Amino acid sequence: MLKKALVIFISIFTLFIFIGCNGDGTIDTTNLPTTIEITQEPTTEAPTEVPTQEPTTEDITTEEVTSEVPTEEPTTEEITTEEPTTVQPTETPTEEPTSEEPTTEEPTTEEPTTEESTIEEPTTTEEVTTQNPITQLFFSEYGEGSSFNKYVEIFNGTGQAVDLSNYSIQLYSNGAASPSQTLTLSGTLDPNDVLVVAHPTANATILTQADITSSSVINFNGNDPLTLSYNGTIIDSLGMPGDASNYGQDTILVRKDSITGPSINFSMTQWDQYPNETYDYIGSHSNFIPDNSILLEQDYNQLPDTIDLIGDWNFGSGSNGSTYTIINVTGLASEHVIYNANYIESTLLENVQYEGEIHIEVSLEGAGTLTKIVGLTLKFSTLDLSTHPEYYESIGEELSGETLLLALRSLINNGFVGVDYGAATTILAESDADPNNAENIILVYLQTSIDGSWDSGATWNREHIWPQSYLGDTADNNTVNIASDLHNLKPANPSENSSRGNKYFDNITTSSTYEPADEVKGDIARILFYMIVMYDYLELIDDPNGSAVYDMGVFSTLLEWHILDPVSDFELNRNNVIYSYQFNRNPFIDNPQYVELIWGNN
């Protein structure tokens, strides 16, 4: 009996060893060689677990397990079904991948952030940090030659037009500590342009480039310092006041390209020196090349601050290549316009007026973008805005350039019936009548309203916009000729008419140029455009010092004025009145786009 009990005990003990039974009847998997089964299944699913399983395999005595596997296959199958839940997620396989996966994912989440900041930063940097290094005018050239071949040149590299009335030039004779002569400047100086001030008896080469002549300040020798002042404060010097040292006798001095501003302490290290007959550099500081941000700002400044929109308006593009794009129109006017790219058109059909703003994006490659807000006044014209379309039936829409010019020349000469110069005394009182007072007329240069009654020129003159002296013919009260063409005649104040004389038109008033009021600049430009189309021997040029018969200017300035001062109701009415007398029209009033089509390349 004892033997039988011992055998039973040994059998049960042996069974416990092989199957590991728990007290509750469940199978204890912790002591079984299940790692053999686990390392095979996870290996196919996650190769990263292989290294973590190899050490586990070495800890288990594989010889014993191998010898027992055949007898325990059913048990192994049952264990395999529970493996994923009990062993794989909870123990070694799940803990180690958790610590590795975040490491591999972090670079992935950070890389897009880095790329986005790299794309945005250049635009922000160019628009915010790029600045024009030049903030003030300065002397860019000095010439002291034989006799009175003397001049100085002042350069504007600020990136915008500068009011010269704040500047003056002083001469310190023989190195005196106080100035003996002062010249106060006037007008404006365009960006990247120069102002040449010369002695009036200098040679022709110098005078051709001169903007102003002065026999007082430009009367120096090599030991007479010169200074440039802004609002009474010296900002730049040629030589040093109080020092009679010879700094510039019989020589030409040209400011080095590396100099980007004025200096109150004169130093020859800032200048290149040339023989006194070297005139290759006068008239420009051409070696100075502004960066793109300056060019962008210049194009930005070319846009008008406000416009009166009657029909349509094309902003064109910047002179430095910037594109103008209308991105929004706000205010009450926005409900009565259509726009696309740089073009805006009124849709008003009633006699009302609305205000608003045009938001224009100015873009230049390599310089970013700027946004300018242009004030908008939307008006309705009481005149016939169709401007006699039947008159232009012969002008094909496909025409441009010289072909269009010749077609217009034929049109406005055909059927032309001139009036004599005497008739202009009454016709101008009608064509240039004050819209608010029919008894008055508007004077062309002063833009003031006065009594329109003719009193033999005591109150107002018949001004030739293209000067009579450059027409090649003389006005006579009883004669019809080029000097009596009504399109070229405007009422003017006698004194202001005398001041203008036969000077060319430009953005500055000098001994050879005249600047009219802003309100009439476009009117003047379109009159001169009419004249060169109507009379084939007239020519617009850019040389303000020329005085040849049949020549007028400054052409490039007039093209700018045409854009900046668009056609008004006043001009449209004037064109209609003149048409009723001499039976031809100014096509650039009726169709302003003809200017671009003919001279767009200029």
Distance between the termini: 129 Å
Strand content: 15-25%
Helicity, in percent?
Answer: 25-40%
Sheet with the most strands?
Answer: 6 strands, mixed
Largest sheet strand order: 8-7-2-1-11-12
Average residue-wise pLDDT: 80
Structural class: alpha+beta
Query: Which outline best applies?
Result: globular
Query: Low-confidence spans: pLDDT under 50, at least 5 residues?
Result: 17-131
Q: Could you tell me the radius of gyration in angstroms?
A: 44 Å
How many strand elements? 28
Please count the helical segments. Answer: 16
What does this structure look like?
32% of the residues lie in helices and 21% in strands. It is α+β, with helices and mostly antiparallel strands and 602 residues long. The protein has a 6-stranded mixed beta sheet with strand order 8-7-2-1-11-12. Strands 5-4-9-10 form a 4-stranded antiparallel beta sheet, with no helix packed on it. Helix 7 links the parallel strand 7 and strand 8. The protein is globular and about 75 Å long. The N and C termini lie far apart (129 Å).
Show the helix and strand layout.
Blueprint: H1 2-19, H2 35-45, H3 50-59, H4 62-68, H5 73-86, H6 92-129, E1 138-144, E2 150-155, E3 162-163, E4 167-171, E5 181-184, E6 188-189, E7 194-198, H7 204-209, E8 212-213, E9 226-230, E10 233-238, E11 251-255, E12 271-275, H8 292-302, E13 306-309, E14 312-314, E15 323-330, E16 337-340, E17 343-346, E18 354-364, E19 368-378, H9 401-413, H10 424-431, E20 433-434, E21 437-442, E22 449-451, E23 461-464, E24 489-492, H11 494-500, E25 504-505, E26 513-514, H12 521-534, E27 539-540, E28 551-552, H13 555-564, H14 569-582, H15 587-590, H16 593-599
